[in-house]
Input
Amino acid sequence: MKSPFLSICIATYNRADFIGETLDSIVRQLTDEVEIVVVDGASTDATRTVVEHDAAGCPGLRYVRLPEKGGVDQDFCKAVEYARGEYCWLFPDDDLLKPGAVNRVLGELQNGHSLLIVNADVMDRDFSTVLQPAIFDNREDETYGPDELEGLFMRIVPNISFIGCVVIRRETWLEREHSRYFGTEFIHVGVIFQGPLPASAFVIAQPYISIRYGNAQWTSRFFEIWMLKWPRIIWSLDRISVDAKRKRGVKPEPWRRLKALRGCRASGAYSRDMYEKIIANSNASRPWKLAALAISLLPLPAFNSCMLWYLKTFKKHKIMKIYDLSIGRENMLGNPRRK
Output
C-alpha cells in the first residue's frame, strides 16, 4: 500500500459533539495522498463511537485510542508518531477545513518547505457569523528561509498559539526535542522555534480553516495558560531575541501587573485558586501579594459595576471589554487561538 504524503493528525478528548463535523469537512477532501490519524486520549464520552463510525466508511481514517489521558502535547506527539505521511498537519478536533484546503496545502508542499502556516478565519460557535476574517493579517503569501527564524516569529506570533495552522515535515518534528514541552499546551511552538528549520517556511495568506470560537477546552484554565504557560514557552525560545518577544507583546510574567489581574478577575478567570497556584509561592513582595489576594476575593458583580462606573466617569476614551468565559470569550489578553 502506498504511503500517504500528508497526515492530518488530530488529538482529541471528549469531543463527541464536534469531531464528527470536523472529520466530515476533511474526509470530503481526501485523496490517495492524504490520511487522517485521530489519537483519542481515553475519552469518556461517545467520541470513540463517532470516530469509529466515520472510520468504517473511510479507509483513509485511522483511530487510535490511548489507555489513559496524556495531555494535548503528548497526544499530538503520539499522532505524529502514528502518522505515515511525509508531512503532518496538526489539526484541532472541533474546527473545520474550508473547501480546497487540502489541495492547496498539497500543492505548496511540493516545493519542499519544512513548514507551512495556514491562515484561518474565526467563526462563532455554530459557524453562522464571521468574527475575524483572518487570524494572520492576510497580505500576500510569504516565504521565510532557514536563517529567517526570527522574521517568521514576528510574522506569526501570537496567533501561532492556534495549533491547527501548523503543517510540518514529520522528520523535522521527530528529530526535535519534545519532552521539555509536555504540559505547556503549546508543544508545536517549542518544536518550531527551538532551532533553524532545515528548509523554508511558507505562510498561506488565504484562510483555509474556520475556527469554532468559544469552544476551547482550557477555558476554565484561562489565567494559568495565558498568564503563565504562554509567556513561559515564548521566553524559553533561545533563538528569538528579547526585542522580538517584546515587540510581539509577550511579557515574561504578565500576572505581575495588577491591572492584568483586575481584568482577569472581571472576566472570572482569576480566582483565589489561581492566586494560590501561581502567585502565593512566587518571589513577589508581600504588599503586592496582599493586593493580588484582595483582587482574587472581590465579588464579581460589585467589582464589575465599580470598574464600569470608573471607566465611564474618568476613562471615557477607553473601552473595557468584560468577557464572559462561560460562553468562551477567551481572548481577552490578545489573540490566542489555541484549542
